[in-house]
Amino acid sequence: MERNTVVRAMHDVGLAAWFGGSLMGAIGLNGATAVVSDRSERLRVANAGWGRWAPASAASIGAFLVGSLGLLSANRQRVACQRGVGASTAAKAALTAAALAATTYTGVLGAKLADAGDVPVEGAVKPEKGTPEDVARTQQQLRLMQWVVPAVTGLLVVLTSLHGEQQRPGQVLRGAARKRFSR
């Protein structure tokens, strides 16, 4: 079997950063804004943090996508010939699309909050009584969406583990035999 170290590393490191960055942001950054003493600066602090992370996030997503396409190309025979690999690959593609959509939508919501300026809030994704209604509504949407990205990218990590297990020599032989003889 030939090695695909570069594309596998791009895939794995990119996905790890995407998952880890989104999880840290939801727990660490968004959670920490509640301790900023001036309630009207809390959104600005969250937006500054997410703004600093955005280029690294984009690079990690790009690396993951390039790595994914490289691995798909390198493993196209297994995808076509080994039972179960095509289905898990299709599931991974669907989850990747969902993760991209969720990441994009959280970015749109974050941009709306950045445009709100210095308004009083309880935290990055939690309004208070004095929070304008449109900002509060956006915060409530982002409060849910901040967990969607790490959930979906976490599922991608699980499918990556499955793909690794499917590459064991015994799995490859059994999967290819089952697919061939099930026709």
Shape: elongated
Main sheet record: none
The structure class reads mainly alpha
Q: Structurally, how many domains make up the residues?
A: 1
Rg for CA atoms: 20 Å
Gap between N and C termini: 26 Å
Q: Helix tally?
A: 6
**Which spans have pLDDT < 50 for at least 5 consecutive residues?**
none
What proportion strand? Answer: under 5%
SSE arrangement, N to C: HHHHHH
Write down the overall mean pLDDT.
91
Count of individual beta strands: 0
Please sum up the structure shown.
This protein has 183 residues and is mainly alpha-helical. It has helices at residues 5-32, 42-74, 76-81, 85-115, 133-166, 169-181.
Structure description:
The protein has 183 residues and is mainly alpha-helical. The protein has one domain (5-181). Helix content is 79%, strand content 0%. The longest helix has 34 residues, at 133-166. The relative contact order is 0.16. The mean pLDDT is 91.
What labels would you give this structure?
183 residues; mainly alpha; elongated
List the helices and strands and how they pair.
Elements: H1 5-32, H2 42-74, H3 76-81, H4 85-115, H5 133-166, H6 169-181
Helix pairs in contact: 1-2, 1-5, 2-4, 4-5
